[in-house]
Amino acid sequence: MGSVREGELKERLLRPLLRELKDGARDRVVVGGLESLVENLARPFPEVRRLFQGYGAKTPEARKGVLEAAIRLLQDGLPPEKPQSPPPPRLALEDPAHHLAPPQSRKKLSELGLHTVRDVLQYYPRRYEDRRTLPGVRFLEDGKKATLQVKVLSKELIKTPKKGMQVVQVKAQDAWGWRLTLVWFNQPWVLSQVEEGATLIVTGRVQRRGGVQLFVEHFEDEGTESLSTGRIVPIYPAKEGISQAFLRRTVHRALELALPLQDPLGPYREAEGLADYSEALTHIHFPEDEEALKRALLRLKFDEYLLLELKALLDAGGLVLGRSFRVEEAWVETFKKALPFPLTRAQARVMEEIAKDMQSPRQMARLLQGDVGSGKTVVAAFALFLAAQNGAQGALMAPTEILARQHFQNLTRYLFPLGVRVELLLGSMSPKEKEAAIGRLAAGEAQVAVGTHALIQEGVAFRDLGLAVVDEEHRFGVLQRRALLKMAQVPPDVLVMSATPIPRSLALTLYGDLEVSVLDEMPPGRTPVKTKVLPHRLRLQAYAFAREEVKKGHQVFVVAPAIEENEELDLKAAKSLYEELKALLPEVRMALLHGKLPAREKEAVMEAFRQGSFDLLVSTTVIEVGVDIPKATLIIVENAERFGLAQLHQLRGRVGRGGLEGYALFIAGEASGKTLKRLKVLEESTDGFYIAEMDLKLRGPGELRGTRQSGYPELRLGDLAEDTGIIERARALAKRILEADPDLSRPEHQALKAELRAQAERIGFREVI
Ligand code: ADP
Ligand code: MG
Predict the structure, then answer these.
(1) pTM of the predicted model as reported, rounded to 2 decimal places
(2) 400 alpha carbon to ligand 1 midpoint, in Å?
């Protein structure tokens, strides 16, 4: 077919065409030359010759079009590109969502809070249904739940004669012609929603009795649409009157018009081994298979946590430069030698972490977690000692006077022999005492101040505050923490101590601005509190045991549960328990402590108890976590099922602290098997973190005490009980990003910044980074 010659001719034509395209097709002489060249050489290629008709009269721009088309033809034998219908307008994430729905449906989007294209793309499915292969009627099993696609043959509404029930019955058949009856009870409106001849996707329970019935729980019209069948189908959180099919169409349209998107993870994505953003968005809504869904979920969870960690770090003022302390090996040795006991391994490890932080020029921001009695105070004393050795002052702030006093005594015990002077500052001290203490702090005569929020009152000043220790953080607002920090000229190092065992994942999200150290080991010699869960009917045994303990000169806590956040009711419950116990144990000296007492009186009652003025304290949960009552050996908790496991674990930490054996008796009010099983975790374990993890798994994070923090977005995809690993990675990346680009101004961080802003707006923060 003369193909060799044709090939040659193509070559001879292509070279000048390519050159001319490159040169811009301007030179009139060349233009004329080309015209005759094509005329002569392109005889076997009539299409090319046709393209060149009127070539010389065209503008350079139009000539370039001709050249491109001719080159395409010659190179690939392809026809010239057809003039295309203009592509649909692309949408940006910030564009209004109403572009995605027909006018009559736009209201639905705003009803769901979907205002922008981003909102729609991030409206993640609640769950999925695998409709890749729907079973036929023939394979339905009696009593099982099933989803299948059927065609409606006929419909009717029947009233049952006896009970007057309204039953919608729809006869339908599957693709193979097998028939079944769809049944709805007492939903007569269904009748008008089902059209004869329509295709439905129906989910329900199967009954094979004579014919096949399906008791429908969920159905969708639009079975013919590929978004709703033949694939893994997303099920969205919806409202009455908003169909799944509508949501699927809207999201699908958003994906079509907005993708591909700039990836917020930009240059970091590959190193993290995560799916591309656009791909992840596609598969979170319309997963190709389980594997794709898993990758999408991982990727988008990572984003969720990254934004959370970035927000936490930015809220805390970013990564602040602080002071850099000197740490000498000899000082560490001196401190250890002065202690009456060897450190636990956990203490030694955490002290090393703290020493490193304090040496670094960055501000230390560390959360020290450890069960009651794990020896946090020693660790705090060590940090305060290092600061003092550097000529700086330290402050320890506690939530109550009784705790502040206790810390004062302990710190003095550890630090006084090392030449560090500790000062106490309480609201209840006389003006003269206060003034003297403040004077010694201002002059720098005292190196350490221990106190309540009295420490941050007007008039208090330090000569040079270098280290702030905050005990029981969740009692203080972030504002109070900040107020303490403001008392320093240079941002001081910060150590936050907490006895609340918070699972690591939760700590990382709630205290995203803090590093976490854990004292996961108890000093030797402490025997765990013996714990027993009692069903309600054995309740009085607990009080018989209390009587025995009191006879031995020991003391007892009895806790009445908080009921529904209602102080009046709590008080009533505590009072009636108190009355009951007085009648039951007339010889026992009792007191009642409840949330309605003024703080001062609460402390007075606790102090009297500590000094042994009475034997049994009935209280709502106001008793302090860290208070040492050496003679307290028994704690009884009524309606223990109303508490979180972590909270119960904390409560039992209040007894057996003075070398005496401690007991906890948890009375289960409504003793369902499940309740008892949950409480039994406490009989089996003494590990506060394990217990907190179990709590998180069994009850969910919302119910953990002190974890409902405003200003933090709800997790849409994340699951704190499982995501510790992802959170740690996201956190590490957040820090790296902010270290390199503190205000996220670099071009590669713009998509991330936009997401951060969108998140802030969603949770009602307008502050712009
Ligand atoms: P926390 O503040 O974590 O509740 P504390 O620091 O008050 O714990 O310590 C509880 C008790 O254990 C104190 O009496 C303390 O002297 C003692 N203690 C602390 N560390 C050790 C240790 N390494 N070995 C023995 N006893 C210790
Ligand atoms: Mg303590």
Answers:
(1) 0.61
(2) 20
